[in-house]
Amino acid sequence: MKKNTTESKLTKAANQQMAEPPAFVWENIEEELHPQDSKRKFAFWWFGSALMAIIFIVLFVNIDQDKNRTTTDIATSNTTVHQKNTIQNNQTTLLSSNKRTTKDLDLNDKLTSDDVTSDDITIEKSIGSTQSNRNNNSIEKINKGNALIATLTTEYPDYLNSTTSNNTNSSRNEKRLIAVHANNSVISKSNKEDRSNISTHAITSLSTNFLIYDRADISYNECPKFNKKLEFKPFVEFGVLGGVHNIGLSQNNNIHLYNLRKNSESSWYSTGLYTNIGLNISKNWHASIGAEWTMSKDRFESKIEGITKMIVTFDPANGTAIDTSFISGALYNKGDITFHFIDIPMSLGYTISKDKWKYGIELTGLLNIKTFSEGKIYNDSEGITSIESEDNIYKSSIGLGLKSSIVIARELNDDFTLQVKPTFKTYLNTINNENYSLPTKYKLFSISIGLKKYF
Amino acid sequence: MLYDNYSRQMYSICLRYCHDKASAADALQEGFIKVYRYINTFKNTGNLYSWIKVIIVRSCLDQIKKEKANFSLDIDHLSIAEHNYELDLNFDDYTYKKILKILDTIPPGYKLVFSMHVLDEMSHTEIASILGITESTSRTQLYKARKLIKKNMLNYSIVHTNVVYD
């Protein structure tokens, strides 16, 4: 069927029409055409979500356990608990009306070392606006993202409407604990009987994300401890090591070879590299796994004394000997022996903190996955040969080992710690092959210097 | 890329067939999914644009059917002589958009066949195949569509003139 000219123009116009489709159309097409990507994405998000859920549950259980413990502690001392107030600093009206709170704050009071916290605080509070409603139910622990966050205006409206007249009795010889939290840290805490004037600066200069914690009529010992919560802090560490080693030979009925090797080999030095990934599983404990390469060098020197060398000089014209001379001395054969050990260390450590320093110990189980050695050595036939050409002397993998270290560390900043570890390492098995006549043990004393990066 | 090259034109077609933008987008999406899935069956000797267009139009019809469960074409089987099918329409005084407005005033079945044949250059064989009708019916629909369009164009002119001179 043919079209008239006008319709052809219309067709042409129709063909020239264009409209921008919505962007989601192409996204949906891609989604439909590449379901594998979608599945992968789903798997990724599913795995991520599951991981997050596990972490959340672990943290939740941990917090919950902590909460129960703390609440019990407070409950037992409830007879002396009279009042605790929690006030946000941006509530200026409340601060001005609550003279007791503002009086008791002393910015200059410092935390003791036991109370020092970093960014991880657990703390409890109780809120009771009047004597009658101070009971166990009013005791509450706050642990919300490790920050103390409460809004009196919404959570405790009764308190806002009450006066502070019944808070404390000034005639009592009471001890009080006051802590100021800013940026998730306790910055000030006091425990005192008198009531000095508060520095208003202490409140007004703080950021809004802090609370004043005020607890009256509780002896210092009953005051809540600001202990670090259990935390899982991952880290990576890497470093170098240097030290001295010992290749211990046993005689084992081959005294001659033993003597030859004993006299020809001497320990020289050891060096190496290591890296670990790990987790701080509590304030004091950490665990890690990694890889470690150690290289130990021995010197080989064989000296045979009483050697006489005869030199005969011939006449090139007729081939007759024209001179004979003798040289006497010792024959030296020198070289190096090098051992390479590749281990997988699995460590458990305990450290205590003092200011920016950490001290502790670390026990490590080693799995030697590869050992290789090279250099000169006396073989079973008591001839000097190369280790590489003798496949019966040293093992290619040793098996298990142990390592113990003393940890001395210094925090450089929140993320990095410099650590020095004097370490003793040994393998539980001999490093020689089973059919070699001289059992050989390896021991290393080293000092490692490394950096630990926390995440 | 195929989508970049043809999506605008095809979306314009979808907008013409479908009732709203959402339906048009759905039709475009389903159409292009088919295009990508069956691109291997396309023979290089053919016209790719036409090939894609047929798929998109089919997709639009599927979309219309999906939205209106009882969708059916009001098709009667007039038997008209071949020479009567061609009516001399004069579109010279009308813009493309005006024609589309006039197309909206005729029954869906007529509009569909007219759009497919005149605007989208499909043969009666293709139309018959897509709509599940005979070629003869397709021709009949086209004849009626042209007739109605001509009539409505006249009405449109009168209305338009009245508006202008009121």
Mean pLDDT across all amino acids of chain A: 66
Mean pLDDT over the full residue set of chain B? 76
Helicity level of chain B, as a percent range? 55-70%
Structurally, the number of domains of chain B stands at 2
Q: What is the top-level CATH class of the largest domain in chain B?
A: Mainly Alpha
Task: Provide a compact summary of the structure.
Chain A is of the alpha+beta class and 455 residues long. In chain A, 22% of the residues lie in helices and 44% in strands.
Could you walk me through the main structural features you see in this protein, from its secondary elements to its overall organization?
Chain A has 455 residues and is of the alpha+beta class. Chain A folds into 2 domains: 62-222, no CATH class; 233-303 and 335-454, Porin. Chain A has helices spanning 5-16, 23-33, 35-76, 92-97, 99-104, 152-155, 157-161, 200-204, 255-264, and strands at residues 83-88, 123-126, 139-142, 176-182, 185-192, 210-216, 233-249, 265-280, 285-314, 321-354, 357-378, 384-386, 399-411, 416-427, 440-454. Chain A has an 8-stranded antiparallel beta barrel with strand order 7-8-9-10-11-13-14-15. Chain A is elongated and about 125 Å long. With 166 residues, chain B is mostly helical. Chain B has 2 domains: 2-67, Rna Polymerase Sigma Factor, Chain: A, CATH 1.10.1740.10; 82-165, Winged helix-like DNA-binding domain superfamily/Winged helix DNA-binding domain (Arc Repressor Mutant, subunit A, Orthogonal Bundle), CATH 1.10.10.10. Chain B is globular, with a radius of gyration of 17 Å. The model of chain B is unreliable at 77-85 and 160-166 (pLDDT under 50). The chains are: A alpha+beta (455), B mainly alpha (166). The A-B interface holds A 1-4, 6-7, 9-11, 13-15, 17-22, 24-26, 28-29, 32-33 and B 3, 7-13, 15-16, 21, 24-25, 28-29, 32-33, 36-37, 85-86, 88-92, 96, 99, 117-121, 124, 139, 142.
